[in-house]
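An instance as discussed:

___
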Amino acid sequence: MSNDNGLINAIKSHNPFDRPLVVRSQDIWVTGFPDVPSLNAHASGAVFDAIERVRTKQQSVIGITIKAEKGLGKSHLISRIRRRLQTDGSALFVYTSEINDLNRIKAEFLRNLANSLKHIGSQGMSQWRELATAIFNEAYNKAFTPDEMVRHFSEVLKVNSKVVEHWTDRVLGIKHDIENPDIIAAILWTLSSNPSEERYAINWLAGQELPQSRADALGLANTSPQDREAQAFSTVRQILDLISDYKPIVICFDELESILMCNDAGYTASQVTAILAKDLYDKIKRGVFITAMFPQTWTDQIRALKEAESVTDRIAQKSIELTYLKSEDVITLVSQWLRDFYNQQGVTSPNSVYPFDEDKLKELGKERPMVRKVLQWCKENWSEPTEFTPPSHPVESAYKKELAAIESKIQDGIEDKTKVANALRFSFSTLVGQVLEKVKITEIADIKARSVDQGYINFKIVGQENGNIVKIGVAILQGVSGRFLQAGLKRLIEYKEFDLTRGCLIRSKKISSGTKAKQYLDILLSSHLGGEWVLLKAEEIKPILAISSVIKAQNDYELTEAEIIDFIIQNRIVLDNNLIHEILSDPSGEIPKDAIDEDN
């Protein structure tokens, strides 16, 4: 062949299988792995058929449960469905896998719904903008595309600052079942070409409390922290009903086997999610529900629910099992990966599975392997360069993958106070028994509090410093403002009530002067209490969030906690992290100069 040298160099310099072979939640939204349509075609075909039945109004709602052992391709299948919908526009797509607080499942789902609709739809813009355009077109009998609608919004807003208010009133004239007009207004604000206005509108739709100045500017009412969970389901239902007026909605629940085990009622993550799916099924006008889980989860947890029959009758109208690979599937899978690789390298291979032996691949197929096992075999049997390359740490590729995912959406990550809190708590747990900033850490403890006080101080670092016991209460008050911020700071200064010797606020944004929250902050930072405000910085929290994501997905990556801890120690991910040091160091008592002004 004329390109022999190029082919050999490509094989020596690149191993296309040397990458994390786990499809994680963030991969659902990107091209990611090569798709092999023939694999599990029976499952994707059944889903596409269900979508078509709902789209053509033969059925209003269909629930599909996909059962498969780890590594059989559940997430690959979901990614295929998402890409198809982005191409043909037959439905909007919502994906939920990260449930950080099982006791606030409805608010968590609202957040996932809002974040899913931020992703690009079939018309080159966010699914939020697709929905906003459809709402406007119906109200005014127009036929704008989302791109045209964004330009139209910008032009009208220049001459009429009340445009959203006027459009909302027009929409409400035909949408009589909308209970909260602000939902319409917020969706219309997503058409703004001002990124700040669009972002705050989506944050409001996600259930976040906005800075009052931002809420006033958009004409949206803030919800109290106490009402947020109660109102979340109503908001979800109204948004889904709006979507259903124009297109079906496909809602996918994945990764139900969470390490978060139980909520206050004693339900596991999979049980809480299944009950939510049942409740949504009963309430929405038009859609397809997909729940993906292990067969054992179905048997031991879903079927064990008291209301098992009512749940399974809805979420599993169709039950689909994914299958192990056969010999011809192995050849197809490997050929697709290699075809993509050689095309990227601009070289031609002598056959579809080169440099592998087709007979060996067929032998592998006789073992009825999982997709991941085949890809792992290819990784290990790829022709390597002759020079010695030291083996990488087993956690390294997973960490790099999660870090890249965090970096791509750091704005969302840094605003998720629960995720930040969980990541920091895990990081500090790796330091128990060590001395850092003169503090010997002995325990990372929960805050014992009445229900009304829970959720404000995230955890407590217990240790010894210069012979004295220290108990540092850590409150991540990020992504909140107004009443929640005030309530959190009020509790952070109540050292006796919560058994603290020091309070530590973690936040990136300024706290407005003249507010009750600022009064509590001044008390916290006073010499009397000796508390501290540690500035939350993206660069410092990214590695903490990434390694926390690895520990959360350790079963998917087939890693042990000991391996992950060893990687953390070897690479000093926690030990050298400035944010960790700042939380433990002697308080400065000062307001950080680099805190962000939300109004700018």
User: Anything to note?
Assistant: The CA atoms of residues 131 and 242 lie 8 Å apart.
